[in-house]
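Anyone able to model this chain together with oxa(dethia)-CoA?
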Amino acid sequence: MKQSMIKGTGMFVPPNIVTNQDLEEIMDTSDEWIRQRTGIRQRHWITEECGSSDLGYEAAQKALDMAGWTPEDLDFIIFATLSPDIMFPGSGCLMAARLGLNSTPVLDIRQQCTGFLYGLATADAYIKSGLAKKILLVGGEVHSSGLDKSTRGRDVTVIFGDGAAAVCLEGIETDEKVGLLASALHADGHFASSLMTELPASRLVDRFPKELSLDDPRYYPVMDGPAIFKKAVRMLPKVTNEALTTAGITLDQIDLIIPHQANKRINQAFGQFLKVPEDKVFHNIENYGNTTAASIPLALHEAMEQGRIGTSGQIVLFAGLGAGLTWGASIYKFF
Ligand code: UT7
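re: yes, here you go
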């Protein structure tokens, strides 16, 4: 039986750090509000032209190095983003070109905060079906160029950061129960308007409505924060139990929980609901904010670097909820 194993991880954030104090200068907010409500102290925002594919490229190079692979070794690439460089083609194609590839298949996925979880499940299906052996999975976002940086957009703008992270996955033949043990994925488009950027909209006869100014709020992300917060606290434990059942393991066998980094309070409530010790839930939102599709692999990379996870036999659980709505959980056992 082929199992999907993580062979390398990498991350990259643009060097420019934007602190909560920096945001106080441009909108009516405060360091105290942001830290208390979200746990965020700073985020990284681009200062010059740089797409999700460019951030992804840097993260991918690091993951490939760790795996000991060259880009030519890859037989499939998955790129998860809600902020593609341009309307089309997708960031995966742009990144693959930067990696020097000219025929490797690439799939872009638009699953927002659960993009990495959907990407893992897709990579696993490709590996188990024999369609691919060596896959690069990247999550990358450039939020900052599309945020409403006035007080009007403060609830959304203070939480988002730019960044990318990548994982190299390989199909290994083994009878052991290792690698990706389970994925549980869900979506409910009835709540699409709870977190969305509405314009430009292909469904309109005029994609850029002439009667609107480019500062219309519909060109910026809007979020019903409290509604999403409540959904996350309710759905994350549920989908975690679903993944545990599929994997045939119990919560006490999980060594570390790496949730999507959307709000530290969501993840603390998630941990309390599961009744796990506080140090079993990994946080790095304070330094990066919410990097959406990049957030889980970025946290995984840092957790491995810090020695919090990664030893043979250890089990990590990933979980997240975000725009769509989409939500999910995955369980991975290190080999
Ligand atoms: O990754 C994608 C999924 N997204 C999430 O999981 C996000 C989930 N939601 C959240 O994280 C939280 O709802 C937020 C952090 C977005 C907001 O926190 P909250 O505790 O739910 O605050 P709220 O939206 O209920 O707003 C409370 C107050 C309001 O003022 P009034 O009406 O009480 O006077 C807001 O206008 O806080 C105000 N407010 C702010 N004040 C200072 C909203 N944003 C800010 C801000 N700075 N940045």
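The mean pLDDT is 97.
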